[in-house]
User: Fold these one by one.
Assistant:
Number 1:
Amino acid sequence: MTLIKACLNGTRRPEEHPALPLTPAQIAADSRAAVAAGASIVHVHPRDRRGRESLAPDVLASVVRAIRGAAPGVPIGVSTGAWIEADAASRLASVRSWTVLPDLASVNLSEEGSVELAYTLAHLGVGVEAGVWTEADAELLVERELAAVCTRILVEVEGGEPGDAAAEAGRILAVLDRYEVAVPRLLHGADASAWPALDAAIAAGLDTRIGLEDTLLDPDGRRVPGNAALVRIAADRVHAARAAGNPH
């Protein structure tokens, strides 16, 4: 059955949605609500006291501890995107300084230093979710044997028209199939492609994700009250597909 990850905040700014969770307490409360709505994993971008994304060990620790207190046992994933710390060496040093570890961390393979970062996370015991945005990323994953340290492959088709996103996803998945990469895959989009990608993931039996990081709107284009509402819609679509006879 399709697993749903709740992506709670991402790079969104506070003015984009009044329910965007930024503080540890807000993120923890949203994590609990998202899990109650049907999410199995949460993915967050920890923020410092000024609301900026951060990989600092104290910032990460406060968020991870808050989530674990509010939603015990739920796997917690965080971002290591290069926009948080542009210098690859500094980003790697920040990760190595973590004192409280998340369960998972996403690594965008198109970014400088991604391979070393992935192997470092694996050495620390953090599950690696490889962000694959293009066919070239998929080829890099194979070439550098990253499947051996990956918990999940994130096929991310963001921006553009839904049809273009679907075509790009198909090309990426074809590369993974050609090399028989046997790692669980999660397919998701963003904004215009968010719901089409989610439906495509359900139809293909892949994991998926939804949350305010990816979209502020329901499938009919209406603004949602928050993350739990998005997860609930996604869970309903998963259950409806199963009821209709989709074996996934």
Note: The two ends are 5 Å apart (CA to CA).
Number 2:
Amino acid sequence: MNSGARLRELMDRGTVVAPFVFDGVQARLAEAAGFKAVYMTGFGTAASYGLPDMGLIGLGEMSANAARIAGAVGVPVIADADTGYGNETNIARTVALYERAGVAALHIEDQDWPKRCGFLEGKRVIPAGEMVLKVRAAVAARTSPDLVIIARSDAYQPNGWDDAIARLRDYRAAGADMVFMDGLKTREDVERAAVDLAGVPQLLNSWLVTPEEANRLGFAVYIHLGLMLRHFSDFRRALEELRDSGRVHVPEADLSVEPVTRLLRRDDA
């Protein structure tokens, strides 16, 4: 069974929780913790290059990172593919590279380029009709029908709720397997999206509800930005501790490279 088929099987059982990861060791740690899928974040991938998520990296960097992550784990990888990096012809190449990388799913968004993180202000979106063509191109380009094509809309902030909902319905009608309304900033937004798009498989990016609540609301996939923000916060605090005290507290159980080495070798001995 390929990774897309495995993801589809998992979604049939309930909400799939996919932690944010942006490199192989994070993905391996998530798999070892028992998560059944992981999410390759575009924000985190850009940050790993020392850059903000504002359209400063492209298809080459993103697809290469997707391949590294997919090669590191046996669980399905859901990957950010930004805007698809161009028109319908570019979309076809994006899908081909991501599929070759081994991802189970990818999402493309209706932002204008240069795009920016979905939680930042100042986003602009392309006409809905242009995005419909991109969705159709993505669906037509996949060689495996199991690859999950996710259509994301960032129209809520610039255009309002009704436009975002109408766009996502159009993207679903164009063939998207799942839709993703980004920029939900309140619990009420999350609950409203569940109602207004009832019956349409949705990916939810939120820390405002628990995975159990997301499952009750009917979301197919749940990704949690807070895990990545915690990573940045913990590392920053450790650096400040080293700067200020000359020490870094590490729990005794973690004072060895051996456990991580075993994890990376997939060696249980």
Note: The mean pLDDT is 95.
Number 3:
Amino acid sequence: MKKLFALMALSGMLFFMASNAVVAQEEAAAPAQEQVDLTADPVEEAAAAAEAGQSLHSQLKQKFIEGGPMFMSFVLIALILGLAFAIERVLYLNLATSNTKKLLANVEQALESGGVEAAKDVCRKTRGPVASIFYQGLDRFDHGIEVVEKSIISYGGVQAGLLEKGLSWIALFIALAPMLGFLGTVIGMIGAFDAIEVAGDISPSLVAGGIKVALITTVGGLMVAIILQFFYNYCVAKIDSIINNMEDASISLLDLLVKHQLKK
């Protein structure tokens, strides 16, 4: 009898120890599973993000096609040509920007050391409209200060015209892009009303296509105008800054020439 009770007690202890071992194994496996899930989440998120980016690109292509190839192509052409003129102007204006204070200092030093010819050589080697204006003024120094002043004013107008060259085309595409979008809007609404007239009934499915075309072309034209307007305003501000520097530098050059003439 005692042996039976001992066997039963031993069996209970073994069962209890086995149960504890299983629970411990399950608790140890749970963090590992959570760690695997955590490591798998970034991969899934990256895949989802890639799918989202691909779907966005495909949606843009789809919207371009839904807007009507004819009108959306015209809007796209306006964007490409407008950006071409805008980028050309931005590059030209950045190259035309120069350090006028350094140029004036070099011209003054050249006048004191080598005279007008040395100053002309400095202007010839310097890039930008300010150096060109200085050269035209120095080239007519022998005719008197009044002639130099008139030459600077005249050639300054020429340089201002060169700086503003191409802005009218950018303004044209800024105005043209929304008009093309609105033209697509009108065509889309006409198509919607034609569908209503043919069906003899007002149904959302009939007018949805025409209204979608109208809205897509309008959005496309407005987006093109907004992009080009940013470049246009940048170019206008840059031109104003360069022209102000030209005027200030021209006045300083006249003062230098008057002092140089008095020293003779």
Note: Confidence is low (pLDDT under 50) at residues 1-40, 46-51.
Number 4:
Amino acid sequence: MIAIDLNCDCGESYGAFQVGDDEGVLPFVSSANVACGGHAGDPMVMRRTVRRCRELGVAVGAHPSYPDLHGFGRRVLPLTPAEIEDWVLAQIGALAAIARAEGVELSHVKPHGALYNVAARDSAIAAAIARAVAAFSREVALVGLAGSALIAAGSEAGLPVLAEAFADRAYEADGRLRDRRHADALIVDPAACLAQTISIARDGVVIAVDGTPVPLQADTICLHGDTPGAAARAATLRQGLAAAGITVRAPRR
């Protein structure tokens, strides 16, 4: 039997600003990456999101970022590795306190946006994030782009690691995610998302934008919740994976 974790980024609203369709997406995933104040999320949103995850039986993880509310965490900020380590630890701690109040323990940490992308290639930043996670708990898994410096840093730090792929992002022939500046960087067609997810989960291959088959071994596959139509894509993925004989479940701890 083939099994895969399906995760989504969520809890990305802030104050009066509503971002994403958490209610539409969360029922179809097995893990959730909850924003914890760096790029989005406030205490009320965090608590509401964790509570909903608990009700649905969805594993809860922290989704820390550069401290960049104005840029939604998609800008690279000039922070040292030591500063990044402390920012990440503080964000994990904020969500962990709220989660514990709701009877939930964090299962994983996945950096967001620009921090995720920088950590995929910069070993010093990747190591800083791994140190922050290890300082919080060596039982918590570190999620990073499959084959990236972040996965290597997590393993070196003695953390459980989860290699991640994407249902709704296009890939380059070298295995990198296609830059969001390109119009075809996001895959919005539900059938195309499903085909890519099945290919990754069952065959260990993703087809790059130029048609090149790229080997890709993943433990978890992400669907973004802030893209219009995310709920329909999430439903298609869950139903289509079941039809293909692929079980969706959170990684066993």
Note: The chain has eight helices and ten strands.
